TrEMBL record:
Documented EC number(s): 3.1.1.58, 3.5.1.41
Species the sequence originates in: Herbaspirillum seropedicae (strain SmR1)
Matching SUPFAM superfamilies: Glycoside hydrolase/deacetylase (SSF88713)
GO molecular function, a single term: N-acetylgalactosaminoglycan deacetylase activity
Signal sequence, start to end: none
Domain spans labelled NodB homology: 96-353
Subcellular location: Secreted
Record-given protein name: Polysaccharide deacetylase protein
A GO BP annotation: carbohydrate metabolic process
EC top class named in words: hydrolase
PANTHER family according to UniProt: POLY-BETA-1,6-N-ACETYL-D-GLUCOSAMINE N-DEACETYLASE, PTHR34216
Length: 353
């Protein structure tokens, strides 16, 4: 069974306020481009939510994603990532150059983001993991779903697997309305940097204390059917979305030995190339903080795997000073159009976040 591309709705008119802001951003961006070498702003998204979710406050909802894309379409020059890199090297970037990327390979990129991108004629790149294609979920989503299921009287945090140093700040699920969000944040930050076996142990302990998935949870189960499947990957590629590598299981590469890290990089590339029937050109480091989440060993592995470029999460804009295997990207945190647009202009004006 093949995934069908989402139907394209009729383009919605740009709200007048966004139209005026887009005009001002174009003017400001054009002025910034005068008399200086132009830079590239690469935006990073992960999933797109149908509705806001308090446990996923860092992820964008569909309504916000739509106005951000509308503002990019009218106020900036959105380029395919590979083309943008070529233009950057050749000093041929247009003013206000932006590229759009998605990390991890969530299926909401296909079901929610793609129709908006197609409606507005915007290109994008998806950096996909392959360990969760067709089944399962990433470790962070398993944490979220377990935290949602924890009983309100849960308080034995040490039994849940929280280390001693986190216990004083563990929340009270009975009296704190933001407790689950706080607990999910604590666990995510802690578990992220554990060795894979220890990470699995902590998550399984949390899941046992959360209890089995109830029937009422089935319709909204956070760890079911979250990731792209084979057919969706193919459909995205057929729609013109470039697919890039992002490792098999999304580990912190610096926490693996060299053999494990090389397998994560190379096996992911081979799996995606087998699905797509084409060579992958681009790679994004999981988590992507230079010197913390990866180092020069992994840069060499990515180059040796045959990738042409690789991307970090260092923030700010890309310029001629950047190594083509450590190109920065920024995450657009702003939820108001004016601040979103001004942040992009600031990134385009100078290096650094």
């Amino acid at each position: 069974m093949h995934a069908t591309l989402p139907a394209l709705p009729s383009p919605a008119p740009l709200p007048a306020s966004l139209g005026m802001l887009a005009l001002l951003l174009r003017l400001g961006g054009n002025l910034l481009a005068l008399g200086r070498r132009r830079r590239l702003c690469i935006l990073t998204y992960h999933r797109v939510l149908a509705q806001p979710d308090p446990l996923l406050g860092g992820e964008i909802d569909l309504a916000s994603f739509r106005w951000q894309m509308q503002l990019l379409a009218k106020g900036f020059t959105v380029l395919p990532l590979a083309e943008a890199l070529q233009r950057l090297r050749q000093n041929r970037l247009p003013p206000r150059a932006v590229s759009i990327t998605f990390d991890d390979g969530y299926r909401s990129v296909h079901t929610l983001a793609l129709p908006v991108l197609q409606q507005l004629g915007l290109p994008a790149t998806v950096f996909a993991t392959t360990g969760f294609v067709e089944h399962g979920s990433m470790w962070n989503d398993r944490i979220l779903h377990a935290v949602r299921r924890l009983p309100a009287d849960a308080h034995d945090w040490q039994a849940l697997g929280l280390p001693q140093e986190l216990l004083p700040s563990a929340p009270d699920l009975r009296h704190d309305p933001d407790a689950r969000t706080h607990l999910a944040t604590l666990l995510d930050a802690h578990v992220k940097y554990l060795a894979p076996a220890e990470r699995q142990r902590v998550i399984e302990t949390l899941e046992r204390h959360a209890g089995p998935v109830g029937q009422a949870d089935q319709a909204n189960q956070a760890d079911q059917d979250l990731m792209l499947d084979h057919d969706m990957l193919l459909a995205l590629a057929q729609a013109g979305v470039e697919i890039g590598g992002h490792t098999t299981s999304h580990p912190i590469l610096s926490r693996l030995d060299d053999a494990q890290a090389r397998h994560e990089i190379c096996d992911n590339k081979a799996a995606l190339e087998a699905i797509l029937g084409r060579r992958l050109r681009l790679f994004a480091y999981p988590n992507g903080k230079p010197g913390l989440d990866y180092d020069q060993r992994h840069v060499a592995m990515v180059r040796g795997a045959g990738y042409e470029a690789a991307f970090t999460t260092a923030g700010g804009s890309a310029g001629p000073e950047h190594d083509c295997y450590q190109i920065p990207r920024g995450r657009p945190w702003d939820r108001r159009p004016l601040m979103f647009g001004l942040r992009l202009l600031r990134w385009l004006a100078r290096p650094g976040a």
